[in-house]
């Protein structure tokens, strides 16, 4: 059940975010901004500000000072799994080859070294996301999924819809990737009550997906370096993969399964 007086603010915030976000895309403006290196998505910041009046300072303080303990080794294994499996696949199975696209060393390999920096730059917006979901609702997976799905919905709505539904070309792969990413993040935020581990896991999994398998301009600028427009991934699938574009959805699906199996609170603590 939604906490008292939060429902109106939540619905109003989501409506305004999707309307404003859609027109930002229509007029070719970014839906995120970078401030002193820190990345902020428009949706997270606006909804956080909308719900700020109902956010409890004491609850937020507890998130940071008394986080719930979890079995961290399983989380770390889950988060870093793609970093472990991909080199194994390359050297043993020869399923992959290194990307020959631009910026392989400048962006690709350097992003592994700069991982702590990118994590720090994204931590504030992930903190805000964790706080607004845990403070706006008595969080569970269905509510987390519905809010997260709606929060970024405008990102997958084609602007051609203004010209008529018949002119819209549906990108099914983008919808699948978006849905799986929302599913994953919703699962993490509903199961993990430790703000630090949620931030570490959600960032690392999405960062690894973009770093190794590529991403669009927004994903690259938020999760990697802000000055690059596109990135095709650190590796290219080998010839044994008939549909390489489905590797990223498959990876996200595997992360969902592993998160479901491995995320557990420490007992008797």
Written description of the protein model:
By secondary structure, this protein is mainly alpha-helical. The protein has one domain (6-262). The chain contains eleven helices and four strands, in the order αββαααβααααααβα. It has helices at residues 6-26, 42-51, 57-65, 72-93, 104-113, 115-136, 141-151, 172-191, 195-213, 217-223, 247-262, and strands at 32-35, 38-41, 96-98, 235-237. The strands form two sheets. Strands 1-2 form a two-stranded antiparallel ribbon. Strand 1 and strand 2 (38-41) form a beta hairpin. Helix 2 runs parallel beside helix 6, helix 4 (72-93) runs parallel beside helix 9 (195-213) and helix 4 (72-93) runs antiparallel to helix 11 (247-262). The two termini are 28 Å apart.
Would you spell out the secondary-structure blueprint of this structure?
Layout: H1 6-26, E1 32-35, E2 38-41, H2 42-51, H3 57-65, H4 72-93, E3 96-98, H5 104-113, H6 115-136, H7 141-151, H8 172-191, H9 195-213, H10 217-223, E4 235-237, H11 247-262
Antiparallel strand pairs: 1-2, 3-4
Helix pairs in contact: 1-2, 2-6, 4-9, 4-11, 6-9, 7-8, 8-9, 8-11, 9-11
């Amino acid at each position: 059940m939604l906490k008292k007086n939060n429902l109106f603010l939540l619905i109003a915030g989501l409506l305004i975010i999707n309307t404003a976000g859609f027109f930002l895309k229509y007029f070719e403006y970014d839906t995120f901004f970078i401030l002193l290196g820190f990345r902020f998505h428009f949706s997270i910041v606006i909804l956080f500000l909308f719900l700020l009046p109902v956010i409890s300072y004491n609850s937020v303080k507890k998130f940071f000072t008394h986080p719930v303990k979890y079995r961290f080794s399983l989380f770390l294994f889950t988060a870093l799994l793609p970093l472990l499996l991909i080199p194994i696949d390359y050297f043993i199975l020869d399923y992959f080859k290194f990307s020959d696209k631009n910026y392989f060393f400048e962006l690709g390999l350097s992003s592994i070294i700069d991982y702590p920096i990118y994590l720090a730059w994204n931590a504030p917006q992930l903190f805000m996301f964790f706080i607004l979901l845990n403070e706006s609702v008595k969080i569970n997976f269905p509510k987390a999924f519905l809010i997260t799905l709606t929060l970024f919905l405008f990102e997958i709505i084609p602007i051609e819809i203004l010209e008529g539904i018949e002119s819209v070309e549906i990108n099914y792969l983008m919808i699948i990737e978006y849905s799986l990413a929302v599913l994953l993040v919703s699962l993490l935020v509903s199961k993990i009550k430790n703000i630090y581990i949620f931030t570490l896991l959600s960032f690392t999994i999405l960062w690894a997906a973009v770093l190794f398998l590529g991403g669009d301009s927004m994903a690259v600028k938020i999760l990697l370096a802000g000055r690059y427009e596109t990135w095709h991934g650190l590796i290219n699938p080998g010839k044994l993969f008939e549909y390489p574009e489905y590797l990223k959805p498959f990876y996200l699906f595997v992360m969902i399964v592993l998160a479901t199996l491995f995320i557990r609170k420490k007992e008797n603590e």
